[in-house]
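re the bet — no i am not wrong, look at it urself. input seq straight from the record:
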Amino acid sequence: MNADDVRVPRAQIGSSPQHLLATVLGEYLDSSDADLPSTAVIAILREFGVSEPSARATLSRLVKRGLIATRGNRRPPVYHLTPQAIAKHRSRMHQFLNFGAHPPHWTGEWVLASFSIPSSGQASRHAVRRSLSALGLVGLYDSVWIRPGSDAAPVREALSELLLHVGGARWSVMHVRFDEEAGPHGPAAAYDLSALASAYSSFIQRYAELRVAARNGKVDPARALVARTSAMDSWRRFADIDPDLPQHLLPKPWPRQEARETFLDIHSALGSLAQARLVAVATPHWPDAASWITHFQASRDPSRPQPTGGKHGGPPLVG
């Protein structure tokens, strides 16, 4: 199994316990060598209002997804993160902490996928649309989908896999440039940028009070753990839904930078407090908790966010 085989639960509004636990493990545990007792996980999830039965079911589901595995046949059970999950977490933390840091390098290229499926292939049509959406494409027209950039290989592979054996189906994947890229009929019209801007503004407003409290040192560890996890959970969705278009295609003003600064202020200021709370909650069930629990921090080198704190964490790199 490699990192791409690990099925991280999808983000969703009102996080499920599965997604919540995946977020916490990704943020605060960065070693597959750590023995993680089930009783410690139950205590941690209790901080977020998750009941013991739900916590146990969550552990079982994350085992099936490949994020965690049992260590031997101990009772109560002991788990560990799989090396594949650690690789996935590090990659995702890199993505989340660096998203929006720099404008994309823009060459003017777009990947365009077009397809034609007979009317009898309704199920195939739905499957294609789901797959293209997952790859970051949007429908410019009914059967013409686009995304910025030049990496067309995943799109070709997806369409070939889905349509190769569908009778009468045809498809093409191209690199294109738009003559009127910034016009009303250009590619930006395929995106609901107003809704995305509204989502960023809502994020800013939702976390404004917490941002001030975090800056002023007025957040206690118990609140820091839940609040920092909530902020990460909210921010990480933008990395999945924002197409990261070049500046000249975005409405003015564009609120993403303020949203990013809001997130990083909270994430950086509350990291040590959240880590301390996790150690305090887990230690009665896991005496070695302080040796393993860490937290990710945006570093001075934005290409290298690293875990910090804990005996097995990396050096503190504060951004």
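see?? Residues 2 and 84 are 6 Å apart (CA to CA). told u. also Residues 256-282 form the longest helix (27 residues). so pay up
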